[in-house]
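Reopening this ticket.

The earlier resolution said the output was attached, but the attachment link was broken on my side. Pasting everything inline this time so it's all in one place.
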Amino acid sequence: MARRAAGGFTLVEVLVVVVVIGIASGIVIANLGGDERRSSEREAHRLAGALEHAAALAQWKSEMLGVSADGSAYRFWRRGEDGRWSPVDNDDVLAPHALPSAFTIRLASYAGAPVAEDAILPFRPSGRNEPYALELASPAWSQIVAGDPLNRVQVAAHAASR
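Inline output:
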């Protein structure tokens, strides 16, 4: 009597598929989801690059540029000949940037002194800028993005103490 071949999967085959799907989903969750520290570092380095770009552009184009922060976003400004600030709208790097929902940003200091919430930190055409700092914070991490008089920007991270 000839035996008919089974038409389904074996238990071992099903378990192998389940394990592979579990490993793949774990990798995806680790890379996409909740690593707040990595997101915080990425946002801080993005801001640092934009600040360095703004300082270099101010020198190159011989114009006063500035940066402001409103808690959930930051934006760059251009000072006109009339002394008024207007938003920079012709540069992709200096476009307004809204932060992810868990993050906040504030101007921390300029020339060693505290800064008003509605201030604009200037980047002079001469390249002689005062040291400044912005704080990018999330519930678990805080990043200080600081520029020196030579327009070098550094990022320093620490666990938030809120």
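Reporter confirms the inline version is readable. Strands lie at 65-69, 73-79, 85-87, 97-98, 104-110, 113-114, 121-123, 132-137, 141-147, 153-159. The chain has one domain: 38-159.
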